[in-house]
Design brief:
By secondary structure, this protein is of the alpha/beta class. Helices cover 56% and strands 10% of the residues. The radius of gyration is 30 Å and the shape is globular. 40% of the residues are buried. Bound molecules: arginine.
Length: 569
C-alpha cells in the first residue's frame, strides 16, 4: 500500500522524486488521520504557495487516479496534509490470503547457499554452564531462521576436546581417581580431579611436566593416553546430550578441536610460506600490531599448537568441505579479540572471502543473582539443573491452573513450557545485553514471556477446538475485520515476513521473540473485543480464520526460537 501511495503521489507531484516522497510520507499515530499522510511544507518553498493550498491541489489531482476508488476508503486534506485512508476490507483480504500460504514467512534469499554455524561448543570434562546455554539457544534459533530463508545450514559443535588440560586430567585421574567414581559422578568428578591437580601441582611442580608428557603422548597418538581421553570425551558427551535432548537441539557435526589436530602443521607451513610467522620469546606468532591488535599466538614455546591454530585449520577445512557463504561463530563477547585475530590472519593469508564471510556473533553475560538454584556442589551451575528447575516450577503452576489434565499431559506441557520459558528469557533481549534470571518473571504466564506466548497459542487452539464447525474458505467477509483491534492484529500478521528477514540480517533472534509477544498481545486485544463463537456463520468463520492464522504464526515464530507448543496448559 505504501508503494501505491508513493506511486499515486509521484504522478500528482512532479516537483519531487519518488524517493523524496517516500522520505517525507508519514504514518500518522492516530487512526483519524489515516494510514498515510503527505505533508506539503517542503513543496511550499519550491512552489511559493501556501501549504494548505498545495494540499488541495494535490488532493484534486490524486482523486483522478483510478486506484483511489478501489484501494482506499477515502482521501482528505487536513491543513497542510493529504491523508490517505486505505481500504480496510481490501487490506484484510490481502493480508489473510497472503498469510494462508504454506510457506508464509519463508524466502529464497538463501537458496543454493550454505551457512556454517559454530555454536554451543562446550568443553570436555567441564560442566555445560549457563554461558553455553546462551550460545546453544542463539545458535539453534539462527539455524532455524536461516533455514527458513532457504539456506543450507551446517550445524557445527566445535567441542573443546583438545589441549594441555587433558594431560593434567590424566595425571590427576591416575593418581587420585577411580573408574567407579568417574562412572558414578561423571563430569562432576572430572572437575574435582582437575581442581585437585592444580592444588597438588602448587606443592609439586614436577606434576606439570608429567602432564605435559601425557598431552605429548596424546599428540603422538599413544594408545593408552588416547583411550583415557576418549573415555572422558564420551562421559562428557553423554551429559551434554541430555541437555541437548531437553532443549531439542541437534548438530550435523561434532567436530571439536581434536578433529583438527593433524591439520595444524599445514597451517604453520602455510603461514611460514607466506612470511607471516615471526618468533617472539620462543613462541611463534602472527604480528598484528599494524591492525591495532595483540599478536595471534600460533605455537607455544614447547611447539604445541593452540586454540587459535585449530580455529584457523577449522576455517580452511570448512571452506573446503562446505564451501560456505558465511561461517558464523556464536560465543561470549570475551572472545571478540580471538575471532578478530583469527579472521585477520585468514585475510593476511590471502583469502578474499574472509572479510565478508567470517562473522563473530557475540552475546552478553548471564547474571544469576536472585535465582535460587540447586547447585551440585561449589558454585557450579549446570544448564541441565536450570532447565529441570524451570520444568518443576511450571509443573506447580499447571497443577494449580489446569488440574483436569492427565498426568501425561501435565508432564509434557511442563517440559515444553518450562524449557521454552528459559529459552524465551534468553532470546527476548538483544543478544549483546546481559540476561538476568528471575524465576518469577521467567515462568510468569503474563507479560513478555515464553509462557505468555505459549498460553496465547493454547488459547487459540481451544477456541478452534470448541467450535463445532468452521470453514476457512466459505462464508468469509473481510469487512468484518475492519474494527480497530482487528486491523491492529492484521498489521501484526502482515509484519511476519519482514520480521524473519530482519532477524536474519541482524543475526538477532530477539526480533522474532519480540514479535511473538506483539502478535500475542494483538490477538488478546482482538479477542477481548470480538466474540468468535457467534451464531452468524459469516462473522464466526471470518473471525475464526484470523484466529487460525494467528495460531499458525505463533507456532512458527516459537519454532524459529527453538520453542515448542502445547494445545493445553
Ligand atoms: N569451547 C569454547 C568455549 O567454551 C567455544 C568454542 C567456540 N568455537 C570456536 N570455533 N572457537 O569457550
Amino acid at each position: 500500500m505504501k508503494n501505491m501511495v508513493i506511486d499515486i503521489l509521484s504522478k500528482a507531484v512532479t516537483e519531487l522524486s519518488a524517493e523524496e516522497i517516500s522520505e517525507i510520507l508519514e504514518q500518522p499515530p492516530k487512526p483519524e488521520l489515516g494510514d498515510y499522510a503527505f505533508p506539503c511544507f517542503r513543496l511550499a518553498k519550491v512552489m511559493r504557495k501556501a501549504p494548505n493550498m498545495i494540499a488541495t491541489d494535490i488532493y484534486e489531482s490524486v482523486m483522478k487516479d483510478e486506484r483511489i476508488n478501489e484501494s482506499f476508503d477515502k482521501v482528505e486534506t487536513n491543513g497542510a496534509y493529504v491523508n490517505f485512508f486505505t481500504n480496510k476490507t481490501l487490506f484484510a483480504k490481502t493480508v489473510l490470503e497472503k498469510s494462508m500460504e504454506d510457506d508464509y514467512g519463508s524466502s529464497h534469499v538463501g537458496d543454493g547457499k550454505t551457512i556454517c554455524i559454530d555454536y554451543s561448543s562446550p568443553n570436555i570434562a567441564k560442566n555445560f554452564h549457563v554461558g553455553h546455554l546462551r550460545t546453544t539457544v542463539i545458535g539453534n534459533s539462527l539455524f532455524k531462521i536461516f533455514t527458513k530463508q532457504g539456506y543450507n545450514v551446517e550445524r557445527i559443535n566445535h567441542l573443546g576436546d583438545w589441549g594441555t588440560q587433558f594431560g593434567k586430567l590424566i595425571v590427576a585421574y591416575k593418581n587420585w581417581g577411580s573408574e567407579e567414581k568417574v562412572k558414578e559422578k561423571g563430569i562432576e568428578e572430572l572437575m574435582r580431579l582437575y581442581v585437585l591437580f592444580h592444588d597438588e601441582a602448587d606443592k609439586k611442580p614436577e606434576l606439570e611436566d608429567e602432564a605435559r608428557l601425557w598431552f605429548h603422548r596424546m599428540e603422538l597418538g599413544d594408545e593408552e593416553a588416547l583411550n583415557i581421553w576418549k573415555w572422558f570425551v564420551e562421559i562428557s558427551l553423554e551429559e551434554f546430550r541430555r541437555t541437548y535432548a531437553l532443549l531439542g537441539v541437534d548438530f550435523d557435526h561434532y567436530t571439536g578441536e581434536s578433529f583438527y589436530r593433524n591439520m595444524t602443521d599445514d597451517v604453520v607451513d602455510e603461514l611460514k610460506k607466506k612470511n607471516l610467522l615471526t618468533e617472539s620469546e620462543g613462541a611463534m606468532i602472527v604480528d598484528l600490531s599494524e591492525y591495532d591488535m595483540a599478536p595471534c599466538l600460533i605455537l607455544k614455546k614447547d611447539g604445541s599448537s593452540i586454540y587459535a591454530t585449530r580455529d584457523i585449520a577449522a576455517v580452511e577445512y570448512r571452506k573446503k568441505t562446505y564451501n560456505f557463504d558465511k561461517c558464523i561463530y556464536v560465543t561470549g563477547q570475551e572472545q571478540k579479540l580471538h575471532f578478530a585475530q583469527v579472521f585477520k590472519v585468514m585475510e593476511l593469508l590471502g583469502y578474499d572471502w574472509a572479510k565478508d564471510s567470517l562473522v563473530h556473533i557475540p552475546y552478553g553475560l548471564v547474571s544469576l543473582d536472585g535465582a535460587k538454584l540447586s547447585s551440585r556442589g561449589g558454585n557450579v551451575i549446570y544448564a541441565e539443573d536450570i532447565l529441570k528447575e524451570a520444568i518443576s516450577k511450571i509443573r506447580e503452576i499447571i497443577d494449580e491452573k489446569n488440574p483436569d489434565l492427565s498426568d501425561e499431559q501435565k508432564e509434557e506441557a511442563s517440559r515444553i513450557v518450562g524449557v521454552g520459558a528459559v529459552i524465551f528469557n534468553d532470546l527476548y533481549n538483544q543478544r549483546i545485553k546481559d540476561v538476568s534470571f528471575k524465576w518469577e518473571h521467567i515462568t510468569s504466564f503474563e507479560g513478555e514471556t515464553g509462557p505468555y506466548v505459549q498460553y496465547t497459542y493454547a488459547r487459540c487452539s481451544s477456541i478452534l477446538r470448541n467450535l463445532e464447525s468452521f470453514s476457512l474458505e466459505r462464508h468469509i467477509d473481510y469487512s468484518i475485520l475492519t474494527d480497530f483491534t482487528s486491523v491492529d492484529l492484521l498489521k501484526e500478521i502482515n509484519r511476519y515476513q519482514s520480521v524473519v528477514d530482519e532477524a536474519a540480517d541482524r543475526y538477532e533472534p530477539s526480533v522474532v521473540a519480540r514479535y511473538a509477544v506483539d502478535l500475542a498481545q494483538a490477538f488478546n486485544r482482538f479477542y477481548t473485543e470480538n466474540r468468535i463463537a457467534v451464531d452468524d456463520v459469516t462473522v464466526r468463520n471470518t473471525r475464526t480464520k484470523i484466529t487460525y492464522i494467528t495460531r499458525e504464526i505463533l507456532r512458527d515464530a516459537l519454532n524459529l526460537l527453538g520453542i515448542g507448543c502445547v494445545e493445553q496448559m
